[in-house]
Amino acid sequence: MYSSTFIFAKGHFDEAFHRLDQEIAAMARAIPGYLGEETWENTQTGLVSNVYYWESLEALQQLVQHPLHREAKASQASWLAGYQVVISQVLRTYGDSKISPLLPAALSA
């Protein structure tokens, strides 16, 4: 399993941003191999982190190569005050079972 983490500083979000953001999210969820997502915001730094989980790198590449994603990447400077992407391989997940699992049980330790 892989995760793609999109970390960004908020800029000016207009109607075009919100439309494209919703379309990309819907498209990502429809890709075979999409496993889930979560969003975090650090109120001290103002950074937002969107984490998507993928069954394979091939599934992640479908998102990266999609025309909507390319459109957003080309326009990001008009909406964001900076960004970084982190692609990671997830080796395992575990916890105390007090929260619902975010990822497939097959990776649990």
UniProtKB/TrEMBL annotation:
<keyword id="KW-0560">Oxidoreductase</keyword>
<keyword id="KW-0503">Monooxygenase</keyword>
<dbReference type="InterPro" id="IPR011008">
    <property type="entry name" value="Dimeric_a/b-barrel"/>
</dbReference>
<dbReference type="InterPro" id="IPR007138">
    <property type="entry name" value="ABM_dom"/>
</dbReference>
<feature type="domain" description="ABM">
    <location>
        <begin position="10"/>
        <end position="74"/>
    </location>
</feature>
<dbReference type="GO" id="GO:0004497">
    <property type="term" value="F:monooxygenase activity"/>
</dbReference>
<dbReference type="Pfam" id="PF03992">
    <property type="entry name" value="ABM"/>
</dbReference>
<protein>
    <submittedName>
        <fullName>Antibiotic biosynthesis monooxygenase</fullName>
    </submittedName>
</protein>
